[in-house]
Amino acid sequence: MKNRFLLLLIVLGSFSFSCRESVDPDALRVYDGPVNSATNIFLIHSDSAIVRTEIRAAKQLEFLNGDQEFPEGIDIKFYTKNGELETTLVADRGYFIKNENLYRGEGDVQIKNLIKDQSLKSEEIFWDKAKKKIYTEKFVTIQDKGTVFSGNGLESDDSFSNYRLKSAKGKTELPGEGI
Q1: Within a 10 A sphere around the Cβ of 77, how many other Cβ atoms?
Q2: 61 CB burial (10 A radius; 0-12, 13-18, 19+)
Q3: For the chain, does the N or the C end have fewer beta carbons within 10 angstroms?
Q4: Pairing of β 118-128 and β 85-91
Q5: How far apart are CA 140 and CA 174, in angstroms?
Q6: How do the domains of the chain map onto residue ranges?
Q7: Buried b (16+ CB within 10 A) or exposed e, 129-151
Q8: How far does the signal peptide extend, from start to end residue (predicted)?
Q9: CATH code reported for the domain at 33-173
């Protein structure tokens, strides 16, 4: 009886050990990288058959949650109601945060209003597409015709026609060409 019991324990024990597999914990991690990639993208937003914005990027990565990354830079053009190119926004890297409908440019960010002869430089800018505004809390340098302003933080309409520096740091009159 003792031998049978011991044999039964050995058999049951070997079954319980043989059913286990060693699993690599890295294999169980959820993939959070891009699910789609595109090159040389060109997106146009129009209203009443008039182009309102154009977005160009050399590379676009799309993630499962709908967010997008533009690791090689982003170029956005804004047009007037009459279809005239008014403003350009260029950044070294770009991001689109889908659940907020918000674009973010970072690195060397430059915005130019071609009609009003205004330009902005910063290291980060946000464009709220729905509210049609751009903003940042970072340091900015703005050239408005012959004057250069600098400060921390900015709010503006997305055409960069009407802007407000949150914390102005300085103002310089330029004798000639600007930034």
Answers
A1: 18
A2: middle
A3: N
A4: unpaired
A5: 17
A6: 33-173
A7: eeeebbbbeebbbbbbeeebbbb
A8: none
A9: 2.60.450.10
In residues, how long is the chain? 179
Written as six digits, the tokens of 38 are: 């595109």
The terminus-to-terminus CA distance of the chain in angstroms comes to: 96
CA distance 117 to 104: 23
CA distances in angstroms from 41 to 31, 36, 91, 160, listed in the order given:
25, 13, 15, 24
